[in-house]
Design goal:
The strands form 2 sheets. The protein has a 5-stranded mixed β-barrel. Strands 7-6-8 form a 3-stranded antiparallel β-sheet, with no helix packed on it. It is 34% helix and 23% strand. 34% of the residues are buried. The chain folds into 2 domains: 77 residues, OB fold (Dihydrolipoamide Acetyltransferase, E2P), CATH 2.40.50.140; 98 residues, no CATH class. It is built from 6 helices and 8 strands. It has 244 residues and is α+β, with helices and mostly antiparallel strands. The structure holds zinc ion (ZN). The site of zinc ion has 8 residues, from loops.
């Protein structure tokens, strides 16, 4: 049982007994792990405030193959979560991305791109209040890291390229757009011209700010897609939605 040294983002922290803490970490080299921090509750002693959610930390831990839980030996802060607590909206935004990552990853699956994506999102949340459009932009980025990106470019039924002005049929069941020809035989919802084109530009990394109407449709597409395919309920989303 070797000591593992890694970087991690703290996703969740829970009390365990009187002075121990259980944390879920997303590590750079080992993916998500659940770990116990002995004495992690006595704030003046071990780990101080290192194991707070959203912190980017350096961690040393032991993990036996047969045991599901790792044991934290040492931890120190690389970058604290300071700034996220500036408003409820920032806390909700950070919670949303952390919960999304937690619910859609399995223990031990390494994903460096996702680690970097989540880390940069949390760093942004420390500095600015995310708009709805920022949230969609970063959500698509995380979905891309997870391999769950909806297809906004080619028809999910026949595979043909769909020109931007014909991108109006989205099938949440099939996870992407349909060309006009295939829309007859597949379940879909239609959206005003420009909505899906806007979403595909987000995927390419172009930020379009989008008005209220655009964002309402985008929200509908993304919520439908996530609830149908990913089978998770992101609890922090409900609160975040009331704030944006
Ligand atoms: Zn088609």
């Amino acid at each position: 049982m070797a000591l593992q040294k890694d970087e991690a983002i703290v996703l969740i922290k829970k009390a365990y007994g009187e002075s121990d803490r259980i944390v879920r970490l997303f590590t750079l080299s080992g993916g998500k792990i659940t770990a116990i921090a002995k004495g992690g509750g006595k704030s003046q002693r071990r780990f101080m405030n290192t194991l707070e959610p959203f912190n980017h930390i350096r961690v040393e831990y032991f993990k036996k193959q047969t045991k599901t839980m790792a044991r934290i030996e040492n931890a120190d802060i690389i970058e604290s979560n300071s700034g996220i607590d500036a408003s409820i909206k920032r806390i909700c935004t950070a919670s949303f991305f952390v919960e999304f990552t937690d619910k859609l990853t399995k223990e031990g699956e390494k994903n460096i791109e996702l680690f970097k994506g989540l880390n940069s999102i949390l760093n942004d949340v420390k500095k600015i209040e995310f708009t709805s459009s920022d949230i969609v932009f970063h959500l698509l980025r995380i979905l891309g890291c997870l391999g769950f990106m909806p297809n906004f470019n080619t028809c999910v039924h026949c595979g043909k390229d769909v020109p931007d002005d014909e991108k109006v049929f989205f099938s949440r069941e099939r996870g992407g757009i349909l060309c006009p020809l295939c829309s007859g035989a597949q379940p879909f919802k239609s959206y005003p011209s420009g909505i899906i084109k806007g979403l595909s530009s987000f995927v390419r990394g172009d930020r379009c700010s989008g008005d209220f109407d655009f964002l309402t449709h985008v929200q509908d597409i993304m919520e439908g897609f996530i609830s149908f395919h990913l089978d998770v309920e992101i609890k922090s989303y409900r609160l975040l939605k009331t704030l944006i």
